[in-house]
Each structure stands twice: as C-alpha cells, then as structure tokens.
Design a protein that fits this description.
Elements lengths: L1 E5 L10 H5 L4 E6 L12 H12 L4 E6 L5 H5 L4 H17 L4 E4 L11 E5 L5 E5 L1 H6 L2 H9 L11 H4 L2 H7 L5 H21 L3 E4 L18 H10 L5 E6 H5 L6 H8 L5 E4 L2 E3 L5 E3 L11 H10 L5 E4 L17 H17 L2
Parallel strand pairs: 1-2, 1-12, 2-3, 3-4, 4-7, 7-8, 8-9, 9-12
Antiparallel strand pairs: 5-6, 6-11, 10-11
Helix pairs in contact: 4-9, 12-13, 13-14
Length: 351
C-alpha cells in the first residue's frame, strides 16, 4: 500500500507540499491540472512543472485525479472521437513523467452532489452534507448557485465553465438511459485502454457520488453488480476502479468490504473515508474512524491487507476542524488525522 494526499497545486490550495511532507507515511501527491477543461490535451510543460514541485519534497506524482471526460463522450456524440484522441495524447504525456494511475469519472453533469458544504457536527466541526429531501425538491440551478457562492476555491466537478452550460446539458441528457451510458463508456474504454496498456497506466473509474440517480440523470457506477459489469466491458487489468468507500458507502445497500474482496486485483487506487447515513437518506461526512460513521473502515483496511493490496490509497474528504479555512472537504488537519487512523489500522492488522 502506498499512501497519497490530494493536492490542488501551488496557488490553488491552502495546504502546501511542506505541510504534506510532515504527515508520516505519505509518498504520493494525487494531483491534476485543475484549470484544464474536459477534452483538452494537457501541455507537457505544465505536467513537468508539477513534477518539479513534487520532486523538491521527495514525492512521486504516480496518481492523477482527474483527467476529466468530456460530456460529448458520455453523450456519445460524433465529436467524441477528437476528445478521445486528446485523452490518448494526455495519457502518453503522463506516462513520460512516471504516472501509474489515472482516476476519472463518468458521471453526467455533476461529479458529486451535496446540499451543504459546512454542516455542523455536535462537536463543532463542519463537513459536507447531503439532504435527500432537499435534492428531491430543489431546482438544480438553485443548487448550482449555492455551490458557486464559495468563490475562494474551485470545486472539482463544479467548474464555472461547466455550470454555464447546465441548462443545455440537462436537455442533452433527457433521453439518455443507463444502457446508453454503459455503451458510451464501453466505446471510450475500447479506445483508451490499449493506449493505457502500452504506456503502463491503469485507468480507475470513480463511483458516482452519491450512487443513485439525481435530478433524473442516469448513473451507472453505483453498486457491486454495475462495477463488475464495467470491469468486463474491457476485461483488462488496466481497466480498473477507484474504490471510494465514502461514495459507495452512502448507500446502505452497498457492502464496501465485499467489493474490496471481489475487485482487489482491479483496484489500483482507493479512497477511504467514512459517512454517517441516516434512515431518511441524508448523510454527512465524518472522521475516518469506524465508530463515527456507517462504514466499516477497519474492515475495509483488513480486506485490503488480506488481498495483498499494493496500490495507492488516500484519505478522502475531511471535516473542517480547528477553525481551518480551506477548500470544503480538503483541509489539512482532518485528512492528516485520517491518514494516521488508516495507517494505525494497517499496522495493527499487519502483526
């Protein structure tokens, strides 16, 4: 297991590489060029700049999260082929600096959905929160405007350029079914996996967050059965999954421990975090500790250990604690605590 930490880059993150260096056990910076639009080919000089920055602190840049997939690919438009060619060239460039895993998602319109970025816990910390009734009743544009009121930090999946086209996107997806989305994903995978194999980069699809249809949009990376099907679309070790315990764990019907055991050989990258799920379908992100949420974090770490997991792992969203001013879900303190909990569980189990 190789521990990583998601970093948004110089000038785009309250957390510095110097801070991350002081967290025991972190080897990998999980990074991306966050200002690049979906479908654009990444420039080599920008990639090399990130490598230079990481090298100064002894970090590798083995994991990229994310190279975003253009909506035309998800929609199956004829224009998708040019965007896929750009994606292939980006894979080739990333391989040249030693990247081993690319995390991506295939979620229509939204990468993730929450109704509150700073919901208070009883202890005074705050965290990302999903209120089911509000999502069921709210106009999507109202939610967009709420997220956009956080002007200090770009939110991955909620970039202004994407949101400007929201109305047209909803119209485009009106007649797109889950089966259509599976077919369009297969087309994408059949094109890029041979390139990934050639350059020794594993593609790792991220689950939908939350793992069910929202605003009538189709979603397919939602459960064990669908992940099994996706891995068979192109049956290659380079077609993998970023198993996110928080995204999948927000549905009580998902057994994340069972998924780790079944898909271990196809999980090059893992997100491990906890959520507390309420009977009414609401959920809030908690500390990483098993006792604090609804996800068996220790059981998940045990399953990874017993499977001989050699991939990359990172803590995912953290709470906002000790008055830290940071990008929602991505502060330093609680994610550092999360790393120590995950490593402590690993070490205790590995006796």
């Amino acid at each position: 297991m190789k521990m990583g930490f998601r970093w948004y880059g110089e000038g785009n993150d309250t957390v510095t590489l110097n801070h991350i260096k002081q967290i025991p056990g972190v080897e990998t910076i999980v990074w991306a060029l966050h200002d690049m639009q979906a479908g654009e080919e990444w420039p080599m000089d920008r990639i090399l700049e990130v490598k230079r920055q990481a090298d100064q602190y002894g970090f590798n840049i083995d994991v990229v999260e994310s190279v975003n997939v253009h909506e035309d690919i998800k929609l199956g438009y004829p224009t998708r082929d040019q965007y896929i060619e750009n994606y292939k060239r980006t894979i080739e460039k990333l391989a040249n600096v030693g990247v081993k895993v690319i995390c991506y998602n295939f979620m229509p319109v939204f990468d993730w959905i929450r109704t509150d970025l700073y919901k208070a816990h009883e202890d005074g910390s705050t965290a990302l929160f999903y209120e089911k009734a509000k999502v069921d009743d709210i106009d999507p544009m109202e939610l967009v405007n709420k997220i956009a009121m956080n002007p200090d930090f770009t939110m991955p999946g909620w970039e202004p350029e994407r949101l400007e086209n929201m109305t047209n996107l909803f119209e485009a997806y009106k007649n797109v079914t889950e089966e259509d989305l599976f077919n369009n994903l297969q087309y994408f995978l059949e094109a890029i996996i041979p390139v990934a194999e050639e350059h020794d980069i594993k593609m790792a699809i991220h689950p939908d967050d939350p793992p069910w249809s929202v605003f009538g949009l189709p979603r397919i990376v939602t459960n064990q059965e669908n992940i099994r099907r996706i891995l068979k679309l192109v049956d290659s070790p380079y077609n993998g999954v970023t198993l996110c315990s928080g995204a999948l764990g927000s549905s009580c019907s998902n057994d994340v421990v069972a998924m780790v055991k079944e898909f271990a050989e196809r999980i090059p990258f893992a997100h491990v975090r906890n959520v507390k799920v309420y009977e009414n379908g609401d959920f809030i992100e908690t500390s990483h500790r098993t006792k604090d949420g609804s996800v068996d974090i220790v059981g998940i770490m045990k399953a990874y250990l017993e499977s001989g997991f050699k991939g990359y792992i990172r803590p995912d969203h953290g709470r906002h604690i000790w008055d830290e001013q940071c990008r929602p879900g991505y502060g330093l303190y609680d994610r550092a605590l999360g790393i120590m909990y995950l490593l402590g569980a690993w070490d205790a189990l590995n006796q």
